[in-house]
Amino acid sequence: MSYLKEFLIQINNRDFQKFLVLWEEYCTSDTVEAEELSQILKAIKPSDLAKQFGQIVETALPIWRLITDEKDSYEILGQLINLETTNSQLLYDLVLETLKKRYENDPKFDQKLRLINFRGKENLQGAISRYDLLNHMNKGNIVFHTAGWGTGEIIDVSNVREHLIIEFENIGGRKDLSFANAFKTLTPLPSEHFLARRFSDPDLLEKEGRENQLSLIKLLLHDLGPKSASEIKDELCELVIPEQEWTKWWQGARSKIKKDPMIESPGTLKEPFYLRKAELSPETRLLSAIQNKTGINDLIQATYNFVRDTPGSLKIPEIKQSLQDKLSQLLERPEITPNQSLQIYLLFEQYFGLQLKDNPLNKQIQKNTNIEEIIQSIDIVAFKKRLLVLVKENKQDWPQIFLNLLFKIPQVQLRDYLLKELNKGENKKLVEQKLKELMENPSLSPETFLWYFQKLVNDADEDVPFQNKEGHGLFFESFLTLLRFLESQPTYKDLVKKMHGMLSGQRFALVREMLQGTSLEYTKEILLLASKCHSLSDHDIKILRSLAEVVHTSLAPPKQRKGTSSDDQEIVWTTEEGYFKIQERIRQIGTTEMIENAREIEAARALGDLRENSEFKFAQERRARLQSEMKTLSQQLNRARIITKEDVHANEVGVGCTVDVQDESGKNTKFSILGPWDADPDQHILSFNSKFALAMMGKKKGESFQFKDENFNIIDFKGLY
Fold it and tell me: What are the DSSP calls for 193-236, one per residue?
């Protein structure tokens, strides 16, 4: 298809003059590829050049006559007649002759010519397509509506009324179409076509798709043309394969597609899969895999992919020797690095079955002092795993190497292997200490922390450190601490989504499990940590509080007596700095974050299928959180009152005071009592409505108060102003 790409460029550029020059050159060819000519005509049909091309359709007849296959010849002539605009006698005679030859045994041939309005050369355009459709219009046959109604089944046909009744998949009820309308919008579908089978018997198609995934994918690509992964999902998910089983089904199909010589896989997710005309031989696949690749890493990756996806190819001596020679040549390159040579040795060992002289694998591992960096620099997971096994066999300090890699390697299966090997004998204490450090500071390696927390929760029977109720509780506290930290890190956006999903999944099942059987103080701590997580909406916090109240009924607020004022109507004390800070926060939400969120929603909406669109769902949840935060802050700002000198009591502890407090051990600490917007526990600045502040409010110098079963004395206090 050497001409197709050039034609597509001129069609997209709408340059008819350059197109015409290229077309004249194409028409002088001695041979023609039917598939290429068909693709060119399909590209012209919806383009701006179609009308002009219709005037020169006859120039295609010489190359059309070179097509020997009867089916291809008929289809391409139909495409040419769909484009023609000259209504010439030559084309009229050719169409009539072709139809007579194809339908010579049809007793209603003349009647059908009348029904398609083929009485003279004036209605020549589309004549072959109209006749084919009319011949297909029988009860029970399947058609496709090109204007959006989808696939449909013909329920009844009347040649007298020139009408037919069809039931379509995309609209309710049966539709009555005139023949004239049908000729403009319907395309006949043979019974074996993918769309016809999906419409008429989806259960049988599903059964065949489960038994032979490749067969279903090939049918789809053959009948609908190249499709990307998302487009394949649109055609199959729910319509053929149940939605809840799609991910598992597609993973199985995807692994088989890679190895199939008839399907060409794309390089990226957005590119389409293609169905080849013929199977690629192992030699051709090898050439395709390694051509234009000169870099050592590229050649290693291409070789690995080839021998993995086509395991039988190494049984062909020529291919095996060719690959072996190419890899051996790579070892002789002066620029080769230790990790590259190790990968080549692993290829020889695992796929070529070679017994290498002097055991270079073990030697390199023993002498390399930076083996951790080498393992991390390798992209092929299978090679990483094999090297880890060899490190354990050849390095005395392997426990320390494994401990370091546990926090660096991203692959879950490799982390599982490292933990399994470390969680034995004397090394068990080492890994427990390392995990304790991670629990105390989860931001050291957020991905590793989340992996281990999931292991604790999901693999309750596995004998690993902290696999008990106390350990779960400690890790859950760290989980919420980490969530709050990551919310301010843009690079961890996806991890925040995952953590939020873990919390809210299965109606907050994780939270229920973590809170069950815990102390009141622990539960309060969890609620406090959760309240600081901005990714949790007000509704989420409300659910968490409800779950906590189920475990500890004392957390439920007392019923308010009639006539008392609600907290919402109380004054919110603040400093001038705190007041302006909240004003700025409201402005930022309204002018920056809401606009950014609107763009996120539009971008997510463009991905399609909002039911399965996690990006859209998360963007909507963020909008709800922003709206809720802005509403709450605005209400509080309306009730806010800036603390002045007149508001500070001179004879008792109150808002705007600095209080010198002594605990039972005799330690003195100074606390400042301000509003909630100014509170900073690290600087001993308390909110006036915090429990500790409320306990000392109204006290005078020398008086004592109690908090959490501990006695405190007011040594002195003074106003801030």
Answer: SHHHHHHH-HHHHHHHHHH-HHHHHHHHHHHH--B-HHHHHHHH
Q: Which of 446, 432, 510 is nearest to 473 (CA)?
A: 510
Closest CA to 29 of 4, 74, 57, 66: 66
Contact by Cβ (8 Å): 195, 223: yes
369-409 pLDDT per residue, tens: 889 999 999 999 999 999 999 999 998 999 999 999 999 99
The reported pTM is: 0.55
| Distances from the Cα of 529 to the Cα of 262, 525, 526, 543, angstroms | 55, 6, 5, 14
**How many whole angstroms from its chain centre is CA 369?**
39
Q: How confident is the model at residue 113 (pLDDT cuts 50, 70, 90)?
A: very high
Helix boundaries (H) for 260-295: 282-290
Output the DSSP codes for 514-575. Answer: HHTT--HHHHHHHHHHHHT-TTS-HHHHHHHHHHHHHH-GGGSPPPPPTTPPPGGGS-EEE-
> Would you place residue 562 in the very low, low, confident or very high pLDDT band (cuts 50, 70, 90)?
very low
Distance CA 133, CA 566 (A): 74
Helices (H), 368-492: 371-377, 381-394, 398-406, 412-422, 427-440, 446-458, 469-486
- pLDDT score of 285: 66
Query: What is the phi-psi region of residue 358: left when phi exceeds 0, alpha when psi lies from -120 to 50, beta otherwise?
Result: left
Confidence of residue 560 (pLDDT cuts 50, 70, 90): very low
CA torsion angle 244 250 255 258 (round to 10)? -170
pLDDT in tens, 174-196: 999 999 999 999 999 999 999 99
Q: How would residue 608 be classed by pLDDT, with cut points 50, 70 and 90?
A: low
Q: How far apart are CA 579 and CA 585, in angstroms?
A: 10
What single letter denotes the amino acid at residue 717?
F
CATH code of 645-719, in short, is 3.10.50.30
Domain boundaries, the chain: 3-136, 195-275, 573-606+613-642, 645-719
The dihedrals phi and psi of 186, each to the nearest 5 degrees, come to -105, 145
Q: At what angle do helices 538-551 and 520-531 cross, to 10 degrees?
A: 180
Determine the 3-state secondary structure of 143 from DSSP: strand
pLDDT, tens digit (0-9, with 9 covering 90-100), for 201-246: 999 999 999 999 999 999 999 999 999 999 999 999 988 999 999 9
Q: Which residue has the tokens 């090997």?
A: 421
* Beta-carbon count within 10 A of 516 CB: 11
Q: Residues with Cβ < 8 Å from 672, sequence gap 6 or more?
A: 657, 658, 659, 683, 684, 685, 686, 720
CA 558, 562, 563: angle at the middle one, nearest 5? 120
Tokens 């029970």 -> residue: 140
Burial of 75 (0-12, 13-18, 19+ CB in 10 A): middle
Beta bridge partners of 674: 687
- Phi first, then psi: give them for residue 226, nearest 5 degrees: -55, 135
Q: How would you write 158-182 as a 3-class SS string?
A: ECCCCEEEEEECCCCCEEEEEHHHH
| Six token digits for residue 534 | 């901005």
Q: Is the dihedral of CA 212, 214, 218, 221 positive or negative?
A: positive
Tokens 């509403």 locate to: 631
Nearest by Cα to 175 from 195, 203, 135, 148: 148
Cβ-based neighbour number of residue 32 at 10 Å: 21
DSSP SS3 for 425? coil
The tally of CA atoms less than 13 A away on the side-chain side of residue 698 is 4
162 closest CA partner among 188, 181, 190, 189: 181
Check residue 610 and give its pLDDT.
54
pLDDT at 172 over 90: no
CB 408 within 8 A of CB 418: no
pLDDT at 719 over 90: no
CB-based contacts of 98, cutoff 8 Å, min separation 6:
74, 77, 128
